[in-house]
Amino acid sequence: MKKLIILVLAVMLALGTTACANKDTKELESSSSLTPTGNFDYVPQYASNGEITGLLVSIGMSTEAVRALYNGTETSSAVAEDAYDFLEAEPKNGLVKMSCVNLNYYFYQNSEDKGISAIANMGDAYGFENGISTSNDVKSICGENDVYTPEDSELFFLPATPDDCTALSYQYGNYTVKFFFISDYLTATFIYDNTVFQYPITVKLDDN
Fold first, then answer.
1. Is 32 part of a structural domain of the chain?
2. Between the ranges 32-46, 82-96, 110-124, where is the mean pLDDT highest?
3. Measured between alpha carbons, how far is residue 35 from residues 32, 40, 43, 135, 137 in Å?
4. Which of 32, 92, 161, 183 is least surrounded by Cβ atoms within 10 Å, i.e. has the fewest?
5. Is 24 exposed, middle or buried (0-12, 13-18, 19+ CB in 10 A)?
6. Is residue 206 assigned to a domain?
7. pTM for the model
8. β-strands 103-108, 165-172 pairing
9. Domain range holding 89?
């Protein structure tokens, strides 16, 4: 009788272990099938307000506020270490570039009251990782769109036109967001106000 009970318990234990293993396997398969993108519903939310996530400067921000931010008259530990790298170039064809590390801000001298009208970001944007995220990653979140080869004039904010460069473009209200890739890896994100910024442009600003 004891042997029978032991045998029944052994069978039940074996079945329980198998069930747990199957459950773990299913959970693992389920988790591995999830796209590694998380919740990116805020992409249109930020972009439609002229913003790039993680940046303290957005489209329409006054130029004085940007200068104050980087010159330390406003408290911000996020830019404190970059303050000494902040540069403002002389106007070229009326367009002025402010730059700091991997960020460029643009405004027109004759309409400075409208604030920053374009931002070029060579870092992470909207949760996409620079140098890691691909065009398919962006399309999986922002929607299907045609990948195209950008003209040199679209890449005016780079010191040189890279080889094997492709781009994706999305419209959010008055703002356009362009993602640029080199060898299909995210290299830069560019956002601008369609009502103010004249894009693309042929003016090169990086020699200032």
1. no
2. 110-124
3. 8, 12, 16, 14, 9
4. 32
5. exposed
6. no
7. 0.76
8. unpaired
9. 42-193
> CA 129, 79, 159: angle at the middle one, nearest 5?
60
In a domain, 106, yes or no: yes
What is the arithmetic mean of pLDDT over 145-161? 91
Check if the beta carbon of residue 156 is closer than 8 Å to that of residue 204: yes
Residue 5 belongs to a domain: no
Both tokens of residue 145?
């769109």
Q: Compute CA 132 distance to the chain's CA centroid, rounded to the nearest angstrom.
A: 11
Of the candidates 168, 156, 159, 165, the residue with the CA atom closest to the CA atom of residue 47: 168
Per-position b or e across 58-71, b if 16+ CB within 10 A of its CB: bbbbebeebeebbe
Q: What's the CA dihedral at 138, 141, 147, 148 to 10 degrees?
A: -70
pLDDT tens digits for 3-42? 444 444 444 544 454 444 444 444 433 333 333 344 456 7
Q: Which helix (H) or strand (E) holds 168?
A: strand 165-172
Looking at this protein, which amino acid is placed at residue 142?
C
Domain count, the chain: 1
